[in-house]
Amino acid sequence: MNIETAKHSGFCFGVKRAIQIATETAQSHEKTVTLGPIIHNPQMVEYLQKKGLHSIDDINDIQDETIIIRSHGITADNYKKLKEQDKKIVDATCPFVKKAQEFAQKLIEDGYQLYILGEKNHPEVEALLSYIDDTAVVVSNPDIEFPKPRKGRVALIAQTTQSEDKFERLASRLLSYCEELQIVKTICNATILRQEATRNLSQKVDIMIVIGGKNSANTTRLAEIARAEGCKTYHIETQEELKDEWFEDVETVGITAGASTPNWIIHSVKEKIKEMNETK
After folding, report:
1. pLDDT digits 0-9 by tens, 193-226
2. Is the pLDDT of residue 30 over 80?
3. Backbone phi, then psi, for 260, in 5-degree steps?
4. Tens digits of residue pLDDT in 251-267
5. Of 119, 124, 126, 237, which residue is the catalytic one?
6. Is 275 labeled as catalytic in the residue annotation?
7. For residues 262 and 10, is the Cβ–Cβ distance under 8 A?
8. Most CB atoms closer than 10 Å: which of 17, 45, 151, 161?
9. Is 139 helix (H, G, I), strand (E, B) or coil?
């Protein structure tokens, strides 16, 4: 049985940066917490907890700790509260997420009705909306009905981990409803590369194993892309979820992983599949 790993998989620039900032901050400050999980990977978050870096969900639970802002960013209201309380803040927000926030503010200032392709309850989108007073229309699925534009001038951006296919379909639909459509593709390059690599690999293997947090939007998207190519696909977080029956009569296995999946988990899954193959 051959095992092939996607050309682009695992940690992206923004996640590597956030983890590095978090670990260095935890080493240099006695008490450090993240406001929400630093990334959407339960195993990595658990690893960091063992190193003393804990996550809290409620801003009111913060005492005298140094606060690390996670890669997805936080809402403008929470950021303002932290500053007013003179808390020690270390910002690990992904630069591409910040760039999307800046684009959103500029487009609203320029008078466009803004549409965002994304998941309204995802922390990145919640933060994004907070910087424009919740004035944008969020569309998670361009293939179903959504509120039509009220203005002739419309702009479109995306959560940084969305798929290009969905973005293009939403842009195409919006074009038919407005006089002008300003498109700013805020999907980050790392996301695009991982999606393309997953699509290409899915076309030539018997099954795909997609590794990453079940709560990770970008990993879930990779599984959707592999399934859309007609490839039998399993989304797992760790090697413990692998099952022997998945590999019966399988000659080639493809492995891909979301941008928040550490290399040591990818390696352990690959080694476990090899072991299962040898003991057939």
Report:
1. 999 999 999 999 999 999 999 999 899 999 999 9
2. no
3. -110, 15
4. 999 999 999 999 999 99
5. 124
6. no
7. yes
8. 161
9. strand
